[in-house]
Automatic annotation (TrEMBL), chains A, B:
It is an enzyme of class 4 (lyase). This is Hydroxymethylglutaryl-CoA lyase. Coiled coil: none annotated. Pfam families: HMGL-like.
Amino acid sequence: MKWPQSVRIVDVTPRDGLQDADGALTSEQKIRLCKALYDAGVRSVEITAFVSPKWVPLMKDAETVATALRDCHETIALVPNEKGFDRALATGVDAVTFVVSASPMHQQENLRMPLADSLQQFRRIAERNDTGGSAAGADVGRVRLRGAISCAFGSPFSDETIVPAHVADIAEQLVETGAVELGLADTVGVGTPQVVYETLCRVKARVGEGVPIVLHLHDRYELGLGNITAALMAGVTTFETALGGLGGCPFVPDAPGNLDTEKVVCWMHRMGIETGIDEEGLAQTRTWLLDALRASVARA
Amino acid sequence: MKWPQSVRIVDVTPRDGLQDADGALTSEQKIRLCKALYDAGVRSVEITAFVSPKWVPLMKDAETVATALRDCHETIALVPNEKGFDRALATGVDAVTFVVSASPMHQQENLRMPLADSLQQFRRIAERNDTGGSAAGADVGRVRLRGAISCAFGSPFSDETIVPAHVADIAEQLVETGAVELGLADTVGVGTPQVVYETLCRVKARVGEGVPIVLHLHDRYELGLGNITAALMAGVTTFETALGGLGGCPFVPDAPGNLDTEKVVCWMHRMGIETGIDEEGLAQTRTWLLDALRASVARA
């Protein structure tokens, strides 16, 4: 068993954490949040999502936020389609997370197109990224392409079953198309150590050792540490988390929050696994963030 | 990876949970506690310890408790030496846990003899158990011999290091001598998933598949679920826990409580692993127990 000496935490508070929160931050506050996360030692932050303001109004300032953080590293933006990719590319983000879903029903709710269409869009994105061009033809350089599979460990809908082999199929297609990092998300928060381990091992075997797998957990049943342990044992060393356990997909009924960044960092440190992150810096940022959200609710 | 369908919970509240508690139960209350645990579906309860009343006065009624529970199954008693074994045998318990320590300093504090002497006593106990006789020659039948190693994952003393190979050596001697079940205890509560997994695998490889390994966790750093997950992945399916997270060795400075029975049962059920235990029955027993302990403190 090869345990890691260190792991990479990708904080997704500014994107997943805020997209469905009670209260809203101003663009300036979002930028401040991201900078505080980088200052606390988080190396990768999912800073925003280039999604339709019609569906996720809280992300309508994606350009403002991303442009302001152009000099930070690593900035990641979620994109659900080609249009989102173009918008992201224009702002100079370092990486984009292209998201599809292992649940056909969630795929339709969240992406508003079937999986095959999403994968087709990802192929066009990857081609354009390879040639360094945007749709408009302007050369704005390459971004790191991340592929992510929502609902990889369970469906939000009781009449749907997620089959690990299907998740592995999607993973393989994303990687063959050009994803250099592969996220598996427990969007519904129903993962157990068994399912997490089996799915991660199966996906890892399919996509090979060269493609880092990222685990994105929501925590409905407080099995987070068990899932993290199982993931470490499956060789996964990148975890997506959010401050205060905020977050949840707006298109999942009763969606549980993300796994809490502070908890995960604390667990890792107690296990003797380095994160490069300052726990005190995280705590201060969380306090400030929750205060800001509360103040926004009070104003509204 | 073979995940278990079910696990066995050995509740050690009446022994480890009470030995260092604030407040004391009467013998009648201890008996009621044990019966309530069996009623809730716990199949094995460590009902008492046959230790010197001088060192652990709260266990001075071991005979009363054990005799009253003679018809319950499975009753387990901890014994630190031959004298304790003889006392246990006379009461008709189903199993005894003979305890040694992987920490030489803790061995001396807790058992008041070096490891070699403890192991010598265990050999004599095993011989007598084989021939079905007590020291006095009366035929009181066999008991199930359990061997247990305290401090298997860390020492209470900063100038001592616990080496997994040493733990495996002791385990092998206990099993060769006659232990049919082998407990590894994180007496200090410093285990991490890495250390727990590596130690369990090493011990398992040494003692073979035929001897069930029992994990007894204390939880200083709230890594319990991670340690449990690592243990399940190492093939361990028996766990010792205590209600309310009570307990701790009187001879370990600032000893943390046991892993909480309710928590562990809840985790297992959420993972889809059966325990045969009724969560509501546990909760009622815990409420009653904590009330009884508080009342005892108030009286004192």
